[in-house]
Each structure stands twice: as structure tokens, then as C-alpha cells.
Amino acid sequence: MDSLKSWVSEHKLSSIGAVWASGIVASLAYNRARSSYKPSVRLIHARLHAQAFTLAVLSGAAAMHYYEGSRAHAHAHAREAGEEVAQNTLG
Questions:
Q1: Could you give the CA distance from residue 56 to residue 49 in angstroms, rounded to a whole number?
Q2: Contact of 68 with 34, CB cutoff 8 Å
Q3: Is residue 25 a contact partner of residue 47, using CB atoms and an 8 Å limit?
Q4: Which InterPro entries does the protein's record reference (predicted)?
Q5: 27: number of CA atoms within 13 Å, CB side?
Q6: Cβ-Cβ contacts under 8 Å for 43 (sequence gap 6 or more)
Q7: pLDDT single digits (tens) 2-29
Q8: DSSP letter assigned to residue 11
């Protein structure tokens, strides 16, 4: 899991493009099996589904980034407070 996480953090645009392309393919496959619409309508629906899926993934990534940032900030703040206590007790 950590290797996937590090790869995604290094290749952000590639991973977003891959999510979008997989959303298009999955939606086209689903619509082809389920609907009798013209191919142009299927393509429009596939694009909309892929955009919604990509927005969901981006929202999740933003939430994860915020959570990791606030967590790192809390650890740094706690470490600074611990250093101050150590200096006060030594000095």
C-alpha cells in the first residue's frame, strides 16, 4: 500500500489521467451492455461518468492531503512542545 501511495504522490497527473481513462472505459462498457442509445450519447454519458469519478477521486486526495498535513503539523507542534519542556527542566 505504501509503494502505491508513494507512486501516486510522485505521478499525480498520470494517476489522475489513468483514473479518468478507466472511468471512460468502464462507463462505455457498462452503457454498451445496458442501453440501446446511439454511440454518441453513450460517449457523452461515459465522459460525464468519468468526470464525476475523477472529481470524487480528487476530493478524496484533497481530504487525504489535508489530513496528512494537519497530522504532520500536530506532530511537529507536539515535538516542539516536548523540546521546550525538556529545555525548561534542564535549564
A1: 11
A2: no
A3: no
A4: Hypoxia_induced_domain, Rcf2
A5: 21
A6: 28
A7: 888 788 778 878 888 888 888 888 888 8
A8: -
The per-residue pLDDT for range 32-73, each reduced to its tens digit, is 887 788 888 888 988 898 889 889 888 888 888 888 777 766
> Running DSSP on this structure, what letter comes out for residue 36?
-
> What residue type is assigned to position 1 of the chain?
M
Helix axes 12-34, 2-10, angle to 10 degrees: 100
SS3 call for 35 = coil
Q: pTM surpassing 0.70?
A: no
Nine-digit cell at 88? 525548561
Contact 53, 21 (CB under 8 A): no
- Grouping H, G, I as helix, E, B as strand and the rest as coil, residue 51 is helix
